[in-house]
Amino acid sequence: MLKKATVVIVAVILIAAAFHIYFLREYAGGWLLWDASEAYLFVDVIREGYHVSYIGYPWFAAKEYFGAVESPLDSHAALVVIRVGSSGVERHVLKLADRVNGSPGSDPDRYTPIEGHIYAYCPTLNGLCRWARDHFEQATDEERQRLGGTNRLTEADFDNDENGWSRREFGAGPNDREFTIEVGDKFRLSVKNSGVHGTKNGTVSIELLRSGTAPEKIATFDARQAGGVVSKEAYQHAFQDRALQR
After folding, report:
1. What is the per-residue pLDDT for 243?
2. Collapsing DSSP states into helix, strand and coil, what is residue 190?
């Protein structure tokens, strides 16, 4: 009898050590820029993955409870850029430097429209850079001198600047928020974040609104800051490039 019990206990331990529980954390936040003819969305999307055996889960959960968050075993960071104009919707995905727990890396930020271009601060491109249809280019020496380097770049939201541009920051998270902007008389964009009650999770969705047509959802981004449990298949899918292209 004792021998059988021992065999059962050993089998249970081996199974608990062999099978894993999978967790995902997701962060998404960005900026909407627009004038009277077009709009741009620059959205940082960060995914972090953890997996732990059943036998190791109690220790993992205890550390999570007391705030001792482990470094992710897998991570993926991307910048999703969406341009909306009269000709349609363009979408580009740029891989970013990996991040830990949503902390910023050496990635573009401070997106600011100046003189018909969208400039940004790009540490990997010597500071001042310019969005060039599907990638960032390093600013020329002449541009740096004329614009004063990165001095004209801003982090603040603004409305209808001297060139008719505006900017709003948004993000996926627990707090409900919704706003709609008008791009001249051509179309509107609706940005809506829906939080999940009692959690730090939420989903932000962007819809294109045109007169006489049904709303068109052009993007959704999730926040999953509580480390939700997912299947092994969903975990693996989350770290494929196409998973960032919703």
Report:
1. 41
2. strand
Structure tokens at 3: 């021998």
pLDDT at 176 over 80: yes
Residues in the chain: 246
- Ranges of beta strands (E only) in 14-73 are 20-34, 39-53
Write out the two tokens for 96.
Answer: 């970013």
Q: Check whether 104 has a pLDDT greater than 60.
A: no
Report residue 20 as tokens: 């894993």
Least Cα distance to 84 among 119, 42, 126, 56 occurs for 42
**Could you give the number of structural domains in the chain?**
1
- What CA–CA distance (Å, rounded) separates 11 from 6? 9
| Separation of alpha carbons 64 and 227, rounded Å | 9
Extract the tokens encoding 97: 């430097």
Percent of residues in the chain assigned helix, strand, coil, to nearest 5: 20, 45, 35
Domain span including residue 137 = 2-244
